[in-house]
């Protein structure tokens, strides 16, 4: 899973040809650590139709604030440069894929 920053968010997420699932995370966030293996599996299995990245909220406040992220983990799904789905909190893989299915 790729880590993005304020500096490359536009190029990696907004400019992506594929839909991008962004995990807003933090080192101190327990649920974020629980979600990481789930997202790695999804990135591997869905890599041909979905890009999965993470951004640290503490080191990248500009992007975090601009998208109104108030809690971690927050997942934002971007399609064509626009956020189309927001999910707050950790979820099992099956439920996360179901939550994303209609937006992909």
Question: What do you see in this structure?
Answer:
- By secondary structure, the protein is α/β, with parallel strands linked by helices.
- The protein has a single domain, classed as Glutaredoxin (3-Layer(aba) Sandwich), CATH 3.40.30.
- It has a five-stranded mixed sheet with strand order 1-3-2-4-5.
- The chain is globular and about 30 Å long.
- 30% of the residues are buried.
- The protein contains four helices and five strands.
- The model has no long low-confidence stretch (mean pLDDT 95).
- Helix 2 (30-45) links the parallel strand 2 (20-25) and strand 3.
- Report strand order across the widest sheet: 1-3-2-4-5
Name the CATH architecture: 3-Layer(aba) Sandwich
User: What integer value in Å does the Rg equal?
Assistant: 12 Å
Shape verdict: globular
Full CATH superfamily name: Glutaredoxin
Separation, N- and C-terminal Cα atoms: 18 Å
- Please, what is the average pLDDT? 95
Estimated share of beta-strand residues: 25-35%
The ordered string of helix (H) and strand (E) elements is: EHEHEHEEH
Number of helices: 4
The tally of strands reads: 5
The chain-level structural class is alpha/beta
* Overall helicity: 25-40%
Q: What profile does the largest beta sheet have?
A: 5 strands, mixed
CATH topology name, in short, is Glutaredoxin
CATH top level? Alpha Beta
What is the count of structural domains? Answer: 1
């Amino acid at each position: 899973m790729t880590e993005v920053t304020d500096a490359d968010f536009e190029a990696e997420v907004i400019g992506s040809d594929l839909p991008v699932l962004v995990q807003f995370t933090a080192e101190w966030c327990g649920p974020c650590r629980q979600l990481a293996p789930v997202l790695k599996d999804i990135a591997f299995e869905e890599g041909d139709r979905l890009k999965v990245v993470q951004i640290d909220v503490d080191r990248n406040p500009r992007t975090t604030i601009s998208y109104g992220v108030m809690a971690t983990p927050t997942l934002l799904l971007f399609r064509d440069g626009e956020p189309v789905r927001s999910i707050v909190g950790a979820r099992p893989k099956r439920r996360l894929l179901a939550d994303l299915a209609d937006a992909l």
